[in-house]
Design a protein that fits this description.
Length: 434
């Protein structure tokens, strides 16, 4: 099938590349000429393991191309996916639909024949009906259907998630649109991956409900972790015992410095606002947002205690600043709250992150960027593990401790143990919930 992907951000680019690997002809469109130039030169503007290789393969096969010309890209397309940003709107917590609606109107004016307009962006319930109305107004003569197809991609594992999904969710209004979507995802259907076809509103709600539930699991275990610290329990053992219950499961029960990233913060805020707008307050979600913000502040106090009550004059090595490993995404990362507090408190901060500097250089002013954790720890007063990159999972703790002025570690991802740290020569070791 001929597919047009509007937007070459994280979701749009990964989806476009993977659709082309299914055998479809895919044109990816973006208004940013710099990004299109990079893509046409074979360079990937985001970090996602394996994406560069898969992209090159399908470009070479002639199934994948990139352009800034939306009109030519839409001409003849059987499905047009809208995968543009829906950031949190300033001031009210709503998802900002400006880019979605603008793309929909541009597509309507460019269409020359029937196509299914598929919203891949995460949008509030009712958005697809608004998209349909906006398109019909922009071009009353055009024939089209709308569909909702939310994404469930984990950054760092997006290709595998797309190719081997837990489920594919499709919301449609007509049988014709359903047939087009079924043909697009036929390669997954043939391999027995579950494809749920439902109405527009249910598809939109599934995305928000799923992300809010996962954010709730993370926040729940972080509250339990705080209690474990007071009563002498080990949150890792608690998580293990909880996760063995099949009704609960072990995923997203890892205590840490709070959730971040491109989805959970904005989607929980948007769901809370949707509930308020419909006079059905989402009290649990609202509490999750508040508690998650508090978790980050609690981490700052942990670090302050390790610095004898003040960051002023201290040298601190921070290992990892992206919101999770295997991505360069800094959106709403805990580091954006924690690191500025260190700098603002007078600390000299050295940062090591395999992929974070490209975005982090502008977001974290006043820090020094290094590539070696041992150099970062040289004459440092504190080492903080903030993101659990593989590079930080097998550190030579004794070597690290010897390089420090005061051998203290805040392991905010519970990678090591107090026993191992003490044996390696650390005077103080603090984790989360232990």
């Amino acid at each position: 099938m001929r597919i047009t992907m509007i937007g070459t951000g994280y979701v749009g680019l990964v989806s476009g590349v993977c659709f082309s690997d299914f055998g479809h002809d895919v044109i990816c469109v973006d208004k940013d000429p710099r990004k299109i130039e990079m893509l046409n030169a074979g360079q990937v503007p985001i970090y996602e393991p394996g994406l560069d290789v898969l992209m090159a393969k399908n470009v070479d096969a002639g199934r994948l191309s990139f352009t800034t010309d939306l009109t030519s890209a839409v001409d003849g397309a059987e499905a047009v996916f809208i995968a543009v940003g829906t950031p949190t709107r300033r001031g009210d917590g709503h998802a900002d639909l400006t880019y979605v609606m603008a793309a929909a109107e541009d597509v309507a004016r460019a269409l020359t024949g029937y196509a299914v307009i598929v919203t891949k962006s995460t949008v509030p319930v009712g958005t697809n009906r608004k998209v349909k109305q906006a398109m019909a107004k922009a071009n009353p003569a055009v024939e089209f259907d709308v569909a909702s197809n939310p994404e469930f991609l984990r950054e760092g594992a997006a290709i595998d998630d797309f190719m081997r999904p837990d489920r594919v969710v499709v919301g449609v209004q007509t049988e014709r649109a359903g047939d087009v979507m079924a043909e697009i995802y036929r390669p997954l259907f043939l391999r027995d991956f579950p494809i749920i076809t439902t109405d527009l509103e249910s598809a939109e709600m599934i995305k928000y409900a799923a992300n809010a539930f996962l954010a709730t699991k993370i926040t729940f275990i972080n509250e339990i972790a705080a209690l474990c610290e007071r009563v002498g329990a080990d949150v890792k053992e608690v998580s293990k015992g909880m996760g063995m219950d099949g009704r609960i499961g072990n995923k997203f029960l890892h205590a840490g410095p709070g959730y971040g990233g491109s989805c959970f913060p904005k989607d929980t805020q948007a769901l809370a606002r949707i509930g308020q707008d419909h006079a059905v307050p989402q009290s649990i979600v609202e509490t999750v947002i508040r508690v998650n913000d508090g978790v980050k502040l609690r981490m700052i106090e942990k670090l302050r205690d390790l610095c004898d009550g003040s960051f002023n004059g201290k040298t601190i090595a921070v290992l990892g600043v992206t919101f999770k490993p295997n991505t360069d995404d800094m959106r709403d990362a805990p580091s954006l709250t924690i690191v500025p507090a260190l700098v603002g408190g007078g600390a000299r901060v050295r940062v090591v992150d395999p992929q974070g500097e490209r975005e982090g250089a502008a977001l974290l002013p006043g820090v020094s960027w290094l590539h070696d954790p041992y150099k970062a720890a040289n004459n440092a007063d504190l080492v903080v593990i903030l993101t659990e990159w593989n590079e930080f999972r097998a550190l030579d703790l004794a070597k690290l401790a010897k390089k420090m002025t005061t051998a203290r570690m805040a392991d905010l991802r519970n990678i090591y143990s107090a026993r191992d740290a003490k044996r390696a020569g650390f005077d103080q070791y603090v984790a989360v919930g232990r």
